[in-house]
Design a protein that fits this description.
Blueprint lengths: L27 E2 L15 E4 L6 E9 L7 E10 L8 E7 L3 E13 L8 E12 L4 E4 L4 E5 L2 E8 L2 E6 L7 E10 L2 E8 L2 E10 L1
Antiparallel strand pairs: 1-12, 2-3, 2-14, 3-4, 4-5, 4-6, 5-8, 6-7, 7-12, 9-10, 10-11, 12-13, 13-14
């Protein structure tokens, strides 16, 4: 199983990126045009990714209560017993800390929204994402904490075997650039990879 993606708070070397899909929305909306006092208010809500072989990512976005206009981002992962993400959730993955996203201006970017697609122009609200030292967590009534190849893992049975997530212990604090973009009901998150912004995840409003 992929390790839970800490959205916009890690690099490709430390966190495994989820699989984004192409969206069908065509109307580009920039959060800064939403009329709110915060340029990021349009992103507030609960978002979910497509099913990816037992796994689905959720992202809850809220405005910080301090009036700064920054966001609080809480990513979680759900593992389903069935590969098509139907039926019960057997494990929930999370982080021990909340990600803060600070506004960092806007930019037009050419981003591939699917692996073999032509790059699409997106208006992106850039943010600097910060998270204090954190650990990954996995919970569920049938989750087992076991050792595999000398490493601690959380494992849960699924219909074709087991889904396991390695426990890497405490991770260092991070502060990295990223971005958010809305097209109709589709949310795209982008991350900086080797000096170039690329698609991180694709979500739809839940």
């Amino acid at each position: 199983m992929k390790k839970l993606l800490a959205v916009l708070a890690g690099s490709a070397a430390t966190l495994l990126a989820g699989c984004g899909g192409g969206g069908s929305g065509t109307a580009q909306q920039l959060a800064g045009e939403s009329g709110s006092t915060s340029p990021l208010a349009a992103y507030v809500g609960t978002w979910q990714s497509a099913c990816d072989h037992h796994d689905r990512q959720l992202l809850v976005i809220a405005l910080k209560s301090d009036g700064s206009g920054s966001l609080e981002l809480t990513p979680t992962g759900e593992t389903y017993f069935k590969a098509d993400c139907s039926g019960p959730v057997v494990a929930t993955d999370g982080m021990s800390a909340t990600i803060t996203g600070k506004p960092d201006g806007t930019a037009d970017m050419l981003i591939k929204l699917a692996e073999n697609a032509t790059a699409t122009s997106l208006r992106v609200d850039k943010i600097t994402s910060s998270v204090p030292a954190y650990t990954f967590l996995r919970s569920g009534t049938t989750v087992k904490y076991v050792q595999m190849d000398g490493k601690n893992n959380w494992c849960v049975d699924v219909d074709n075997g087991a889904s396991c997530m390695q426990d890497d212990g405490m991770q260092p604090a991070l502060s990295v650039p990223g971005g958010l973009s809305l097209r109709a009901n589709d949310l795209y998150t982008v991350m900086l990879d080797k000096g170039v912004y690329v698609l991180d995840m694709h979500y739809v409003k839940k």
